[in-house]
Amino acid sequence: MPLKWLLHWQPNAGTTVNSQILSEVSQCVESINGAKEGRWKSTLTFYRPVLRDQTLQAEYPRDCLGISLQEQPNKYYFILRSQRIVLEADSTIQMIMEKLQSYKSRVSLYFEGFQYQLGDFQLRVGKVVPTHSENLRGIVMEVEYLPISSLDKSRQIMEDFVDIWQETVSKRSLPGHFMHIEPNFAEYGLSDHYTSQHTAVQYAIVMAQLIASVRN
Amino acid sequence: MVLDCCLHMKGTNTGTELLICVGLLRDEPKLRAMECVVQGIIETQHVEALEILLQGLCGVPKERLRIHELCLKSGPNLGAVASEVRLLCDLEQPEPTWTVRHVGGAMRGAGAEQISVLVRTVVESKASKNVLRFFYTLGYKLDHELLRVGFAFHFQRGAQITVTVTSVNKMLKLHATEEAVPVTPGIQLVEVTAPASSDNYTEVVAAISSFCEYLAPLLHLSKPNVSAGVVPTAAAAAASLMSNGGGKTL
Question: Which residues of chain B neighbour A56 with C-beta distances below 8 Å?
Fold first, then answer.
């Protein structure tokens, strides 16, 4: 499948993300002739272990994330970041986890917004909001390059595109910038050929960054 | 979330109706994933005759089965209650495929006692090949593992029915599927299952019960854990099948 980079908005120190920035970013896409196509939404859920003895918490993963992706409606992904595990399963795995009652879903976040077509690129600009609130927690952007599935072969063109994008955004003098962190996919057992498992891992990494930003 | 079901028998002018009431204790999908199942045992020497009978009844080719089943249980500290999940690895595929299977509670109540088919909740999910490592990391432990070797027939007869005939084998060393030995030498397990939902399991129960009657000359089928043993006249029935070449009424 086509590869994608997931960028996230890194606010400048002392500032927070807000809907004005989201609006400006969307305008940037349209200013470079991105054609608005429709909405998209992915969901990320934090799972925590249910333990009889809380003092043994350290023995269990505290960073279990579940992700459903727009482009894979029948699949669900679990990521255990500290163990570098990404599991792809049918969406019924959520029902199994509910029945097991060993891990409970806590907070869920939506990544949602509009998608745009721009030549061979498909862009998705999205806000990050808790499922029962409109509090903006972050801004993300998916940059998908449709012709290529190889991470290595696409690297140059993706870097060139992101450079142009960063320059376009910087002209608006917004208090922050987009960042791209490339996970070490090999540590997760993933190859150069891009898959939705790669996307799930990128979302987990971005989530960690968003949490770190809020803490700082 | 607990599935609370009971069966009621209701007398009418034209006969007896079987009503199935499902109590939902919390938010649940309306069409709950369920399974109807009966099991039986057959001597290995009669499996060939059973295969001939099934071939005639089902009209589809058999599918070979080689399933490595790992039963995982939650560690002592995990979850308010203990939980169990099964991982099934299909070794017959060119690239082994994994399925996660959760078997839930069976229907309860006086009515459920009266029907000869077990109806239980079951949820399955395909998963990537690192699923065992995933559950170990979550805190699940291997309770036991089995290798099921045999064949299956899948066909439509009032319901989507699957008949599996397998020898159940245990591994002498951890995950050593090449060195498995039968748990009960000379005896194989027959399972008849069909998926069902809270809307249609009366029909599915009826379809399975009806189909099982065709197998009666060779084996008794009953709810799991309610063993009826082998059929005393199975040898004669098997001989008849083998001499007829199958496809004929016993």
Answer: 77
